[in-house]
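Following up on my earlier thread - several people asked me to post the actual chain instead of describing it. Fair enough. Here it is, all 454 residues.
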Amino acid sequence: MKRFLAITFLALAFPAAASAHATLEHTVPAFQQRVSASPREIVLRFDQAVDVLPTSIRVVDARGRVVSGPARAEFSGRHVVAPIRRLARGAYTVRWHAMSGDGHVVSGVFTFGVRVAAPPPTEAFGASGPTTSEHVVRWLYFLALSLVAGGLAIRLLVVRAPLPPRAEKRFFVLTAVGAVGAIDVGIVAFVLRAEDALQLPFGKLLYGDLTPIANGTRVGTAFVAMTLGFALVSALLFLAWLTDRSAFLWAAFAVTLVFVSGLSLSGHSAADAGSTWKSELADWVHLSAASMWIGGLVQLAVVVLPLAPDVRRVAFLRFSSLATVLVALVLVAGTYLSIVRLPHVRDLWTTGYGHVLLVKLGLVALALAWGGLHRVIAVPRVAGDKAGVFAKLPRSVLGESVAGMAVLLAAAVLVDSKPPTRAPAQTVARKASTFATKSFVSPSRPRLRTEAGP
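Reply from S.P.:
Thanks for posting it. Predicted structure:
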């Protein structure tokens, strides 16, 4: 068995050489480059000769109008060049494809800007934006984060005492499912975003050039970092299970909280106008506290209450106190983010982002009401050690966790929604100056003429 595991490890560590399909080495203009003048042509340089069609390079402007001519091969087929007409100021999308020597069609997309900042490739012309599939995948990702963060939080901050073997096993299973799920679901989310950006079916996506997305966007950078981070969390959980040492659990908890910030550093709180380190910090606090709260409810309902009768009373009371702090953090951080992202109160009922936020607030109110009933009714009964109190409590706690999962679903849709745009500071200042100029009354002119004039 050990020999089999060693062979498997070596096979994974030293994979066979992949087929030698062509690799894009350099482009002119470069990925997301801002150029000061219109380039005369688009140049793609590959590491080997490729077969070129007239449509191998297609450049479009922000309105989808094609501005490039037929592509041709140069330098023994290693360069693909397409002329472009004189470009006006704006952002442009380059989509390309070519056939490499092994018969595979390689494809890619990148953007550049003429005297303006280029958008990320995930916002290239032709990308449809978030879909229902992406909403579901994002929700599953939030659930995975909750299982990891909430499981570790309740085990380290609430239970503390040794658990019965069945309960300990279930704890590790649920937490490991969350860690592995964060890796696998994260990969699916990245593939969906890349598929939309490249506008390719999954089969052809395997030979697509994902470099502009993986290295040139916040989403790609966060994906790489979080995948590696949760791989480390999975390893630490395995070591904790193998050695029965809580130090590895503490390390896994710390790494989880650190890499959860990847979502905050790549989302609206970091990329939208008006975002600051304060909005990034608030988003991280909001997501971390919500994950620990909802994931902790799942662990409490599925692991502690049914399988650990000796510690469930103390655990329930401690979690009630911890949940109060977590919910307070969720509300404070969420309120701050709502103020930052919604320029006006009317945006709640006049924009799509506001509509989703209202649904989320309604679900949060339901979850809070459910938790409030536990606080008012269940906590005194548990503290008084009344008989029969734990008969229905696991199902009630599980119900509260389901309400929390519904909150995560609304949050997944909210993350993929675009908040209302804020007017740039210069525009606001210009409007204020214009208003002041029109409202100024010169001493040499009658007031009536000034107010009634054109």
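Confidence is low (pLDDT under 50) at residues 1-19, 423-454. That should answer part of your original question.
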